[in-house]
Amino acid sequence: MRKKAGFAALSGLLAALVLTFSMLEGMLPPLPGMPPGAKLGLSNVVMMYAAGSLGLPWAMALAVIKGGFALLTRGVTAGAMSLSGGLLSTACAWAVLKKTRASFALTGICGAMAHNAGQVLVAFWMMGPAVLGYAPVLILASLATGALTGAVLKVSLPQVERVSGFLVGKKP
Q: Tens digit of pLDDT for each residue in 16-43?
């Protein structure tokens, strides 16, 4: 019983973190030197953790929650871009974490590139092929933001595992 309740608590905590980081990131000014629309991807730290620890279905559910939040707070275009990028990056991060021995930085970079690819696909569908010219700029931004989110996960992982172990009844 304790494990189920702890898992539910951890899932709710991660959902709250994803939404909080997403909202905070929307409040930050554009980053100097970054292309227009590029963001740090702070919520991707939570998504990578969820993909690696809770598994793909739960992590995908978090991506859907995040996409729904973007839809409700910023509109259809933002919701579609968040959902497509989130689902693709979560699947990519899960695959890299579970099927390779890649570092968190490389996992973050792959996830960031997949997120941008999902967003470019939606933009292509909505606006046409002109948006493909922006893809190389986003790839470069993915290198920086993905490496940063991977580093943040690596640094914060011991504390997160201690809390999550407590919640689901494992010894911290």
A: 999 999 889 888 887 777 777 778 888 8
